[in-house]
Each structure stands twice: as C-alpha cells, then as structure tokens.
Amino acid sequence: MTTTPAHQAAKAPQSPLERQLIIDYLWTKGYRLENLQTLPADLAKELMTAACTYASLKLAEIEARSKFLRKINYNESL
Q1: What is the DSSP string of 16-68?
Q2: How many structural domains is the chain composed of?
C-alpha cells in the first residue's frame, strides 16, 4: 500500500489543530468547510488556499513560541 502526502498529512499530530484553524478561518469569512463544494471552483480554491496559508502560519507561530518557552525554561533552570 502506497502512502500519499495527503495520507501522511492526515496522520500528523497537528492535523486536528490545522483542520480547526482552517474551519475557523473560513467561518470568519462567512463560509463553512462543508459548503465549499457548492461555490464556484475558483472561489473555493482561493478560500482554501488562504485558509491553508493562515493555518500554516499559525502552526509555525505556535511551534516558535513553544521552542522559545522551552529555551527560556532551560536557561532559567541553569
């Protein structure tokens, strides 16, 4: 059985958080993930691209904060 990047991404530990960030982004724009298929293809693609970019940036921010906090905590314990 071959594993595609989509299957690997679905198994990633941050997948539920990423999905929720995408859902939240779409909600702020007045859309629901379930309803994107009823939109014109161009608009749906544009919205998902923006939502995925937003989610990716938020995940990077969370990771950076986590690393920063670990570094601070490590330095304080010395």
Answers
A1: HHHHHHHHHHHHHTT--GGGGGGS-HHHHHHHHHHHHHHHHHHHHHHHHHHHH
A2: 1
- Is residue 27 over pLDDT 90? yes
43: in domain: yes
User: Residue 32 is encoded by which pair of tokens?
Assistant: 């629901």
Those residues whose C-beta lies under 8 Å from the C-beta of residue 19, and which sit 6 or more positions away, are none
Structural domain span for residue 52: 14-77
**Is residue 8 a part of any domain in this protein?**
no
Could you tell me if residue 35 is inside a domain? yes
Residue 10 has pLDDT above 90, yes or no: no
DSSP 6: H
d(CA 72, CA 40) in angstroms, rounded, equals 48
